[in-house]
């Protein structure tokens, strides 16, 4: 099974071309290839498939084998792969995901390889029941969740996948793994949630620390960066164009007036090879 490995703002991914190939049970395959010791090692796995409604279809799986509707860092890696390997020919690409069709602009380098990728991420979903969260409000902004007897102020929204955003002053004062796991699996979130701990540097710059649904502690999250900038902008902490520092890279997130989101960043091809299935 020929694979490619990419990293994008800290998330690493295994990619397979499924256009003329059947990979069997995707959930089991993701669990195997993403294993850090018994597999290749990655936060997620993607499969390219053909689409009836867009140029191609992207299927995304977390390292625990669960399927995610969308992945922001993943879709940039996916775009670089399909462009650099001529699976698509245009620099404007439409990609079908389980969170709708996403539109991509590829910015190439002097060798005509994808250098930077701009993704039209569409609109965030704010309504409680659509996120979903068991709080029936039109917007779930600045609510309180109690973890280990302590109050945390959080906001929730969906940008492709469900997200919780918590602004923090000092990252050293919180236990990301403990809080992340407990919030991800909290009964408030029937489909679980990704958790973003956000430190505001100033209105144009933030640092994000990530806990992902289905993948645990990771070095970044594209949809989470979008979600964090949307909430920061609504609350008044952030402008509408923000530099995001994840632990593994940098992204630019831009919002237009009605909160349509654009994400700009790169993706790096790390390896290609053959996965031996057992
Ligand atoms: N790392 C991702 C999100 C992966 C999806 C996920 N963890 C889920 O909610 O299933 C990103 O860059 O947007």
TrEMBL record:
It catalyses: (2S,6S)-2,6-diaminopimelate = meso-2,6-diaminopimelate. Its EC number is 5.1.1.7. Homodimer. The active site is at residues 71, 221. HAMAP family: DAP_epimerase. Belongs to the diaminopimelate epimerase family. GO terms for biological process: lysine biosynthetic process via diaminopimelate. Keywords: Amino-acid biosynthesis, Cytoplasm, Isomerase, Lysine biosynthesis. This is Diaminopimelate epimerase. It comes from the Bacteria. Catalyzes the stereoinversion of LL-2,6-diaminopimelate (L,L-DAP) to meso-diaminopimelate (meso-DAP), a precursor of L-lysine and an essential component of the bacterial peptidoglycan. Substrate binds at residues 11, 62, 72-73, 194, 212-213, 222-223. The keyword Repeat does not apply. GO terms for cellular component: cytosol. NCBIfam families: DapF. Pathway: Amino-acid biosynthesis; L-lysine biosynthesis via DAP pathway; DL-2,6-diaminopimelate from LL-2,6-diaminopimelate: step 1/1. InterPro entries: DAP_epimerase_AS, DAP_epimerase_DapF. The keyword Cytoplasm applies. It is found in: Cytoplasm. GO terms for molecular function: diaminopimelate epimerase activity. Pfam families: DAP_epimerase. It comes from Tissierella pigra. The record marks 163, 212 as: Could be important to modulate the pK values of the two catalytic cysteine residues.
